[in-house]
UniProtKB/TrEMBL annotation:
It comes from the Eukaryota. This is SET domain-containing protein. One of its GO terms (biological process) is methylation. The gene is 106091138. Signal peptide: none annotated. The keyword Chloroplast does not apply. Residues 29-260 form the SET domain. It holds the Pfam family SET. GO terms for molecular function: N-methyltransferase activity; protein methyltransferase activity; S-adenosylmethionine-dependent methyltransferase activity. PROSITE patterns: SET (PS50280). Keywords: Methyltransferase, S-adenosyl-L-methionine, Transferase.
Amino acid sequence: MVAPSSISTAELAEKINKHLGLKFEDKNSAWSVLDSPISGRGVFAARDIAPGEIILRDTALLAGPKASDASILNICVVCCALLQESDHEKIMCPKGCAMPVCNTCADSETHATECELLRHWKPKDGKNINFHCVRLISIVRCFFLGDLQRQLLYALQANSDKYYRAELQKAMAGFEQFPKDRKMLEYFYRTICIFNTNSFEGDCKVNGAEVRVRALFPLASLINHQCTPNADHYFENAQTIIITATRPIKQGEEIVTSYTKLLWSTLTRKMFLFMTKHFMCSCQRCLDPTENGTYLSALFCRAQGCKGIVIPVQTKTLQPDWRCTTCESVFPHSKMARYQDFALNTINNRINKGSVAEMITFINDMCPRFCPSSNYVLVEAKLNVIWRMSRPTTEEFNEDHLKCKERYKEEIVALLEKLGAGDCTLKKLITEEIL
């Protein structure tokens, strides 16, 4: 782990204010940067904040298209607009930097500097897009940060990982003259670590089309995690993030968001946070085996003749024992993990292969035989049905299908209310059907 640079919290707050500048100046600011008991520094409410109120806007240090799959190859790396051409050669930068760009950005001042740098490194193949190089375009932009932005970058936590070095090496292999200077490579690698540790991702509309973007924000990155957060975020555009309150926040209370999906089970959240963020969460929800009475982790008891459910009891570990709430039998984590994996694989296979009608039948008739209705895997399956039925589709749905969709929505909203999630984005997506 690479620690942040030594800068006081007060100095950091001052630099963030300078970074935001007049564009985001707010005389009735709702936030302040202070020392946090959760993780060193955090963002706190400077006054009482109402549910749904915008807490802050932040502008990105580094940003670019979300680079998780081949779809990134059809997105302009500058403005993130979708590129219509199916022939990659026709959407390549005409100057030879080997990046996909739209016609407007190809000649823009914004692209000119990074285009020149990439051409100086000499792409090995100027006619075809190199996926690994495109993945790293957001990081390349660290070379063009001003002094203030570079100081803010260095003030953020950087969790190192061997896969990040592999990512850098794959990108380097796409150029004939990628620099070998040690200090430059370390700065580049550190930026990768910072970006992967702190960046946000989300959907935003560019030219009327929805695209997935990923960006690093100096203020929003200071917001700490809790599994039942009081704030949520969305992208106003590819360069701007907005943090909103999901429930009332009192003056002096820390503003927190969730780094995981709200409806994941405790063990799933813990594993994700440990593997990607390098910490173990010990918030109130994580310490409650019932998760506020939602029983998202619950599995059926394996004791003969018992029809109860089992939940993890040693919540401070990644491999807890499980105890039945009815017969109090205790089972080792290895056994219950195999059972959970079976449920996960069975349901995911159906999600990926079946029609919506088949999914509904499977959820209603088959799943109750091996998975409690509260289990997070089954909840994810119900969310999948809601999502697919809310999108344009050629499938036809009868009255029973529509009733099931409404019942699933009610069940999931009830879970969110038990968790105290407030007016979170997921609740809005479900109730307002803006999927």
